Amino acid sequence: MSKERARRREERLAVLEKEKAARARKVARRQRRRQLVKRLTPRTRKTGQLYRRTRSQRLGILLGLAVAVAAVWLLVPELSLRIVLTAVLVLAAPALVVVVLGRKAG
């Protein structure tokens, strides 16, 4: 009877060892795959928060540009000059925003 128990215990332990080895191979494979993916994915520089203006700053920029365009269209009599000045305002607005508010606002 004790030999029978010992044989069954050995069989049970052998099955457990096989399962343990299979689990270890699976974990090792998963780790190798993760390392490979990590190595192959391009690294992006994370230099902090993305550049962003606050809602009030965006609203101020928009309202300021709208007031300037409205002033051009109300005060300038010639149509071609209105169009040119509006284009200049739209093209110069980003540079003016950077000068007035700075690059790292927000």
Radius of gyration: 35 Å
First-last Cα distance: 80 Å
Weakly predicted, low-confidence segments: none
Task: Give the assembly state of these chains.
Answer: single chain
Determine the strand fraction and express it as a percent band.
under 5%
Number of separate structural domains: 2
Q: Report the mean per-residue pLDDT as an integer.
A: 87
User: What class would the helix/strand composition place it in?
Assistant: mainly alpha
What composes the largest sheet?
A: none
The number of helices is 3
Overall body shape: rod-shaped
Query: How many distinct beta strands?
Result: 0
User: What is the chain-wise order of helices and strands?
Assistant: HHH
Keywords: Membrane, Transmembrane, Transmembrane helix
Transmembrane segments: 59-76, 82-102
List the helices and strands and how they pair.
Elements (H helix, E strand, L loop, with lengths): L1 H39 L14 H21 L3 H23 L5
Please give a quick description of this structure.
The protein has helices at residues 2-40, 55-75, 79-101. With 106 residues, the protein is an all-alpha fold.
Would you write up a description of this structure?
The chain contains three helices and no strands. It has two domains: 1-43; 55-101. It is 78% helix and 0% strand. With 106 residues, the chain is an all-alpha fold. The protein is rod-shaped. Helix 2 (55-75) packs antiparallel against helix 3 (79-101). It has helices at 2-40, 55-75, 79-101. The relative contact order is 0.08. The longest helix has 39 residues, at 2-40.
